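Sanity check

After download, print the first record. It should look like this:
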Amino acid sequence: MTARRKLRDAIASREELNFVFGQATPQKVNQVVEETQEQAIPCHQILCSFTFVPDNKPVRHYYDPHELEHWALHDIKPNGIRSPLWIRPHPHQPGKYELVAGLRRFKAASILKLETVPVRIFNWDDHTAFQAAVSENANRRDFSALEELDNMLRLLEIQLDYNTEEVISLLYRMNNAAKGITNQNVLVSPESQQVQQIFDAFGKITWQSFVATRLPLLKKPPEILEKIRQGEIHYTKGILIAGIKDLQLRNQLLQEAVLEGLSLSEIKQRLQAINGTNSQNSASSSPQTQDLKHRFSQVMQQAKKNRSIWKNPDKAQSLEQLLTQLESLVNS
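Expected C-alpha coordinates:
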Protein backbone atom coordinates (compact mmCIF):
# COMPACT_ATOMS: atom_id res chain seq x y z
CA MET A 1 0.00 0.00 0.00
CA THR A 2 1.32 3.44 -0.93
CA ALA A 3 2.08 5.57 2.11
CA ARG A 4 0.12 8.79 2.48
CA ARG A 5 2.07 11.94 1.72
CA LYS A 6 2.61 14.31 4.59
CA LEU A 7 0.19 17.21 4.56
CA ARG A 8 2.92 19.81 4.07
CA ASP A 9 4.23 17.89 1.04
CA ALA A 10 0.72 17.49 -0.37
CA ILE A 11 0.00 21.20 -0.34
CA ALA A 12 3.45 22.48 -1.22
CA SER A 13 2.62 22.83 -4.91
CA ARG A 14 -0.57 24.84 -4.32
CA GLU A 15 -0.02 28.46 -3.32
CA GLU A 16 -3.69 28.94 -2.37
CA LEU A 17 -3.61 25.92 -0.09
CA ASN A 18 -0.30 27.07 1.32
CA PHE A 19 -1.95 30.35 2.22
CA VAL A 20 -5.14 28.76 3.50
CA PHE A 21 -3.30 26.39 5.79
CA GLY A 22 -1.37 29.25 7.32
CA GLN A 23 2.05 28.07 6.18
CA ALA A 24 2.88 31.35 4.45
CA THR A 25 4.16 34.49 6.17
CA PRO A 26 1.69 37.33 6.84
CA GLN A 27 3.40 39.27 4.06
CA LYS A 28 2.79 36.44 1.62
CA VAL A 29 -0.83 36.13 2.75
CA ASN A 30 -1.40 39.83 2.06
CA GLN A 31 0.30 39.51 -1.30
CA VAL A 32 -1.94 36.60 -2.37
CA VAL A 33 -5.09 38.49 -1.38
CA GLU A 34 -4.00 41.80 -2.89
CA GLU A 35 -3.04 40.15 -6.16
CA THR A 36 -6.62 38.98 -6.54
CA GLN A 37 -8.53 41.91 -8.00
CA GLU A 38 -11.42 43.34 -5.99
CA GLN A 39 -14.57 44.02 -7.94
CA ALA A 40 -18.28 44.65 -7.38
CA ILE A 41 -20.90 42.23 -8.65
CA PRO A 42 -24.71 42.08 -8.29
CA CYS A 43 -25.92 40.32 -5.15
CA HIS A 44 -28.36 38.15 -7.13
CA GLN A 45 -25.41 36.46 -8.84
CA ILE A 46 -24.11 35.09 -5.51
CA LEU A 47 -25.58 31.84 -4.15
CA CYS A 48 -25.19 30.50 -0.62
CA SER A 49 -25.31 26.84 -1.61
CA PHE A 50 -22.17 25.70 0.26
CA THR A 51 -21.61 22.74 -2.06
CA PHE A 52 -17.98 22.64 -0.93
CA VAL A 53 -18.92 21.90 2.71
CA PRO A 54 -19.39 18.19 3.54
CA ASP A 55 -22.91 18.71 4.93
CA ASN A 56 -23.74 21.76 2.77
CA LYS A 57 -24.04 24.05 5.80
CA PRO A 58 -22.09 27.27 6.52
CA VAL A 59 -19.09 27.00 8.81
CA ARG A 60 -20.86 29.24 11.33
CA HIS A 61 -24.06 27.96 12.87
CA TYR A 62 -25.80 31.08 14.09
CA TYR A 63 -26.09 34.81 13.54
CA ASP A 64 -28.11 36.78 16.08
CA PRO A 65 -30.75 38.57 13.96
CA HIS A 66 -30.96 41.62 16.25
CA GLU A 67 -27.17 42.00 16.44
CA LEU A 68 -26.92 41.52 12.66
CA GLU A 69 -29.55 44.18 11.93
CA HIS A 70 -27.94 46.66 14.33
CA TRP A 71 -24.53 46.06 12.71
CA ALA A 72 -25.99 46.48 9.22
CA LEU A 73 -27.74 49.76 10.05
CA HIS A 74 -25.07 51.37 12.21
CA ASP A 75 -21.86 50.15 10.59
CA ILE A 76 -22.35 48.79 7.09
CA LYS A 77 -24.89 51.44 6.01
CA PRO A 78 -22.73 54.48 6.87
CA ASN A 79 -19.34 52.90 6.11
CA GLY A 80 -20.02 50.30 3.46
CA ILE A 81 -18.61 46.77 3.26
CA ARG A 82 -14.91 47.35 3.80
CA SER A 83 -13.72 43.75 3.43
CA PRO A 84 -14.61 41.98 0.16
CA LEU A 85 -16.47 38.70 0.21
CA TRP A 86 -14.67 35.61 -1.07
CA ILE A 87 -16.49 33.81 -3.85
CA ARG A 88 -15.80 31.28 -6.58
CA PRO A 89 -17.49 30.44 -9.90
CA HIS A 90 -20.45 28.23 -9.06
CA PRO A 91 -19.61 24.61 -9.96
CA HIS A 92 -23.14 23.77 -11.17
CA GLN A 93 -24.76 27.04 -12.26
CA PRO A 94 -22.97 28.92 -15.06
CA GLY A 95 -22.98 32.68 -14.67
CA LYS A 96 -23.43 32.43 -10.90
CA TYR A 97 -20.96 32.56 -8.04
CA GLU A 98 -20.84 30.63 -4.78
CA LEU A 99 -20.14 32.38 -1.50
CA VAL A 100 -17.05 30.98 0.22
CA ALA A 101 -16.56 33.47 3.05
CA GLY A 102 -18.45 36.56 4.14
CA LEU A 103 -21.96 35.26 4.95
CA ARG A 104 -22.47 37.83 7.72
CA ARG A 105 -21.58 40.68 5.35
CA PHE A 106 -23.81 39.17 2.67
CA LYS A 107 -26.74 38.97 5.12
CA ALA A 108 -26.15 42.60 6.08
CA ALA A 109 -26.22 43.56 2.40
CA SER A 110 -29.55 41.76 2.08
CA ILE A 111 -30.98 43.67 5.06
CA LEU A 112 -29.92 46.95 3.45
CA LYS A 113 -31.13 45.78 0.02
CA LEU A 114 -27.78 46.57 -1.58
CA GLU A 115 -27.60 45.84 -5.29
CA THR A 116 -23.88 45.01 -5.40
CA VAL A 117 -21.18 43.86 -2.98
CA PRO A 118 -17.36 43.96 -3.20
CA VAL A 119 -15.80 40.55 -3.84
CA ARG A 120 -12.62 38.71 -4.64
CA ILE A 121 -13.06 35.77 -6.99
CA PHE A 122 -10.94 32.65 -6.48
CA ASN A 123 -10.84 29.62 -8.75
CA TRP A 124 -10.92 27.12 -5.87
CA ASP A 125 -11.90 23.45 -5.84
CA ASP A 126 -14.18 22.10 -3.09
CA HIS A 127 -11.43 21.22 -0.62
CA THR A 128 -9.62 24.52 -0.99
CA ALA A 129 -12.86 26.51 -0.74
CA PHE A 130 -13.83 24.80 2.50
CA GLN A 131 -10.38 25.28 4.00
CA ALA A 132 -10.47 28.94 2.97
CA ALA A 133 -13.90 29.41 4.58
CA VAL A 134 -12.70 27.97 7.88
CA SER A 135 -9.49 30.00 7.84
CA GLU A 136 -11.15 33.32 6.95
CA ASN A 137 -13.92 32.92 9.54
CA ALA A 138 -11.54 31.86 12.30
CA ASN A 139 -9.41 34.95 11.70
CA ARG A 140 -12.42 37.25 12.06
CA ARG A 141 -14.13 35.85 15.16
CA ASP A 142 -13.52 32.80 17.32
CA PHE A 143 -15.73 29.84 16.58
CA SER A 144 -18.04 28.52 19.26
CA ALA A 145 -16.98 25.19 20.75
CA LEU A 146 -19.51 23.30 18.61
CA GLU A 147 -18.51 25.16 15.43
CA GLU A 148 -14.88 24.32 16.19
CA LEU A 149 -15.82 20.69 16.78
CA ASP A 150 -17.76 20.37 13.53
CA ASN A 151 -15.28 22.23 11.35
CA MET A 152 -12.20 20.45 12.67
CA LEU A 153 -13.89 17.08 12.20
CA ARG A 154 -14.78 18.08 8.64
CA LEU A 155 -11.20 19.14 7.90
CA LEU A 156 -9.83 15.91 9.33
CA GLU A 157 -12.32 13.85 7.32
CA ILE A 158 -11.26 15.57 4.11
CA GLN A 159 -7.51 15.34 4.68
CA LEU A 160 -7.46 11.81 6.07
CA ASP A 161 -10.19 10.51 3.73
CA TYR A 162 -11.94 9.12 6.82
CA ASN A 163 -15.55 9.19 7.90
CA THR A 164 -16.53 10.90 11.15
CA GLU A 165 -16.41 7.75 13.26
CA GLU A 166 -12.93 6.87 11.99
CA VAL A 167 -11.63 10.38 12.79
CA ILE A 168 -13.05 10.25 16.32
CA SER A 169 -11.61 6.78 16.85
CA LEU A 170 -8.15 7.93 15.72
CA LEU A 171 -8.24 10.94 18.05
CA TYR A 172 -9.18 8.80 21.05
CA ARG A 173 -6.45 6.26 20.20
CA MET A 174 -3.92 9.08 19.96
CA ASN A 175 -5.12 10.43 23.29
CA ASN A 176 -4.83 7.04 24.99
CA ALA A 177 -1.34 6.60 23.58
CA ALA A 178 -0.29 10.07 24.76
CA LYS A 179 -1.48 9.16 28.26
CA GLY A 180 0.50 5.90 28.17
CA ILE A 181 -2.66 3.77 28.31
CA THR A 182 -1.97 2.06 24.99
CA ASN A 183 0.96 1.50 22.64
CA GLN A 184 2.42 4.80 21.46
CA ASN A 185 3.10 3.69 17.88
CA VAL A 186 -0.07 5.45 16.71
CA LEU A 187 1.49 8.82 17.62
CA VAL A 188 4.18 8.43 14.95
CA SER A 189 1.84 7.22 12.20
CA PRO A 190 1.38 9.37 9.07
CA GLU A 191 -2.27 9.96 10.04
CA SER A 192 -1.32 11.30 13.46
CA GLN A 193 1.27 13.60 11.91
CA GLN A 194 -1.44 14.95 9.61
CA VAL A 195 -3.71 15.55 12.59
CA GLN A 196 -0.94 17.48 14.34
CA GLN A 197 -0.24 19.58 11.26
CA ILE A 198 -3.90 20.45 10.75
CA PHE A 199 -4.28 21.56 14.36
CA ASP A 200 -1.08 23.58 14.12
CA ALA A 201 -2.45 25.36 11.05
CA PHE A 202 -6.12 25.82 11.98
CA GLY A 203 -6.81 24.98 15.57
CA LYS A 204 -6.95 27.53 18.35
CA ILE A 205 -6.35 24.61 20.71
CA THR A 206 -4.21 21.48 20.63
CA TRP A 207 -5.62 18.17 19.49
CA GLN A 208 -5.39 16.93 23.10
CA SER A 209 -7.57 19.81 24.30
CA PHE A 210 -9.90 19.15 21.39
CA VAL A 211 -10.37 15.56 22.56
CA ALA A 212 -10.88 16.65 26.17
CA THR A 213 -13.17 19.65 25.65
CA ARG A 214 -14.78 19.38 22.20
CA LEU A 215 -15.51 15.71 21.49
CA PRO A 216 -17.60 15.35 24.71
CA LEU A 217 -20.09 17.79 23.13
CA LEU A 218 -21.22 14.90 20.93
CA LYS A 219 -22.77 13.36 24.06
CA LYS A 220 -25.08 16.34 24.56
CA PRO A 221 -28.79 15.83 23.69
CA PRO A 222 -28.93 15.48 19.88
CA GLU A 223 -32.04 17.64 19.57
CA ILE A 224 -30.13 20.51 21.22
CA LEU A 225 -27.11 20.13 18.93
CA GLU A 226 -29.35 19.99 15.87
CA LYS A 227 -31.11 23.25 16.79
CA ILE A 228 -27.71 24.93 17.24
CA ARG A 229 -26.43 23.59 13.93
CA GLN A 230 -29.56 24.73 12.11
CA GLY A 231 -28.98 28.25 13.41
CA GLU A 232 -32.22 28.30 15.40
CA ILE A 233 -30.54 29.01 18.73
CA HIS A 234 -27.18 30.36 19.87
CA TYR A 235 -24.62 27.87 21.15
CA THR A 236 -24.44 29.29 24.69
CA LYS A 237 -28.23 29.18 25.07
CA GLY A 238 -28.50 25.64 23.73
CA ILE A 239 -25.75 24.25 25.96
CA LEU A 240 -27.37 25.92 28.98
CA ILE A 241 -30.68 24.21 28.20
CA ALA A 242 -28.85 20.92 27.63
CA GLY A 243 -28.11 20.81 31.36
CA ILE A 244 -31.77 20.05 32.18
CA LYS A 245 -32.04 16.35 32.95
CA ASP A 246 -35.82 16.04 32.55
CA LEU A 247 -36.52 15.39 28.85
CA GLN A 248 -39.96 16.98 28.84
CA LEU A 249 -38.84 20.14 30.64
CA ARG A 250 -35.74 20.39 28.45
CA ASN A 251 -37.66 20.13 25.18
CA GLN A 252 -40.31 22.56 26.44
CA LEU A 253 -37.74 25.23 27.30
CA LEU A 254 -35.87 24.58 24.04
CA GLN A 255 -39.05 25.15 22.04
CA GLU A 256 -39.86 28.32 23.99
CA ALA A 257 -36.32 29.66 23.55
CA VAL A 258 -36.50 29.15 19.77
CA LEU A 259 -40.06 30.40 19.19
CA GLU A 260 -39.95 33.32 21.63
CA GLY A 261 -36.32 34.27 21.01
CA LEU A 262 -35.52 34.14 24.72
CA SER A 263 -32.39 35.96 25.81
CA LEU A 264 -29.66 34.25 27.79
CA SER A 265 -30.79 35.98 31.00
CA GLU A 266 -34.40 34.91 30.41
CA ILE A 267 -33.30 31.30 29.96
CA LYS A 268 -31.29 31.48 33.17
CA GLN A 269 -34.35 32.83 35.03
CA ARG A 270 -36.49 29.96 33.78
CA LEU A 271 -33.79 27.49 34.73
CA GLN A 272 -33.74 28.93 38.25
CA ALA A 273 -37.51 28.52 38.44
CA ILE A 274 -37.25 24.90 37.26
CA ASN A 275 -34.44 24.12 39.69
CA GLY A 276 -36.33 25.85 42.51
CA THR A 277 -39.45 23.77 41.84
CA ASN A 278 -37.41 20.57 41.67
CA SER A 279 -35.62 21.47 44.92
CA GLN A 280 -38.93 22.12 46.70
CA ASN A 281 -40.38 18.85 45.44
CA SER A 282 -37.24 17.02 46.49
CA ALA A 283 -37.19 18.68 49.91
CA SER A 284 -40.86 17.94 50.58
CA SER A 285 -40.68 14.30 49.55
CA SER A 286 -37.22 13.44 50.81
CA PRO A 287 -37.99 12.88 54.53
CA GLN A 288 -41.01 10.71 53.73
CA THR A 289 -39.04 8.73 51.15
CA GLN A 290 -36.13 8.20 53.52
CA ASP A 291 -38.50 7.12 56.31
CA LEU A 292 -40.21 4.57 54.05
CA LYS A 293 -36.88 3.13 52.93
CA HIS A 294 -35.71 2.89 56.53
CA ARG A 295 -38.92 1.18 57.69
CA PHE A 296 -38.88 -1.23 54.74
CA SER A 297 -35.28 -2.18 55.43
CA GLN A 298 -35.96 -2.73 59.11
CA VAL A 299 -39.03 -4.91 58.45
CA MET A 300 -37.10 -7.04 55.96
CA GLN A 301 -34.30 -7.61 58.47
CA GLN A 302 -36.77 -8.51 61.20
CA ALA A 303 -38.67 -10.86 58.89
CA LYS A 304 -35.50 -12.75 58.01
CA LYS A 305 -34.71 -13.27 61.68
CA ASN A 306 -38.27 -14.23 62.74
CA ARG A 307 -38.47 -17.98 62.12
CA SER A 308 -42.11 -18.17 63.19
CA ILE A 309 -43.17 -16.36 60.01
CA TRP A 310 -41.82 -19.13 57.85
CA LYS A 311 -43.12 -22.01 60.02
CA ASN A 312 -46.63 -20.66 60.64
CA PRO A 313 -48.90 -21.51 57.66
CA ASP A 314 -51.23 -18.56 58.31
CA LYS A 315 -48.37 -16.07 58.53
CA ALA A 316 -46.73 -17.57 55.47
CA GLN A 317 -49.98 -17.18 53.52
CA SER A 318 -50.30 -13.53 54.63
CA LEU A 319 -46.69 -12.92 53.66
CA GLU A 320 -47.30 -14.41 50.23
CA GLN A 321 -50.24 -12.04 49.70
CA LEU A 322 -48.12 -9.07 50.75
CA LEU A 323 -45.29 -10.14 48.44
CA THR A 324 -47.75 -10.43 45.56
CA GLN A 325 -48.97 -6.89 46.24
CA LEU A 326 -45.39 -5.62 46.50
CA GLU A 327 -44.39 -7.29 43.22
CA SER A 328 -47.40 -5.72 41.51
CA LEU A 329 -46.49 -2.29 42.93
CA VAL A 330 -42.85 -2.53 41.87
CA ASN A 331 -43.65 -3.71 38.31
CA SER A 332 -46.52 -1.30 37.68
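If your output differs, re-run the checksum step. Summary of this record's structure: The chain has three domains: 36-141, 143-219, 223-302.
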